[in-house]
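quick one before i forget lol
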Amino acid sequence: QHAQWVMVAASGIAVRFLDGLAQDKHSDPALVVLDEAGRYAVSLLAGHEGGANRLAYRVANAVGAVPVVTTATEALKPLVVGIGCRKGVSAERIEAAVQQALEGLGGRRLNDVREVATIDLKADEPGLIEFCARHDLPLRIFAHDTVAARAWVTQPSDWVRQNVGLDGVCEPCALIACTRGKLEVPKMALDGVAVAVVEDKWMEA
């Protein structure tokens, strides 16, 4: 009866609950499992086709969990883009800044990006939401305190410090989202948008 499910339970309980219900990836309901401590939001069933991957990000952003996505279509993309922007900036300006940053990384493309990361202050920024929707990119949101605790930046910004209370947004957000990653494109600013790109190095381990 429902297209999307969120279970707060152990993954084993969720699997037993689903016994006999899963039939086809094109028709199965999306299922996300959240542990009782709210640490991980796991896309367990109908991840790509059914929307569980996106649901995992929604749940994770709501409770401060880590989204866990294992489908190859998403998981094998190596880049995470951190974004900070002025209020009211358009999706087109965000796209231009991201494209410029990717070009500086040997001409990489948006198809190589796994997720976009930003701070909670920008969670409802229309241009950022539109940009992510336009390119089918999940948006990961970090609480101000989380970013402040790890706010190492290469280029501290007086404007961000005065208006957000941090030295920077795009670099720490990208690095927190990709803990095994390396900052390949430090902060680049263009027309009110700041972008940093981190590349996941797990395949080199």
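fyi The chain has a mean pLDDT of 92.
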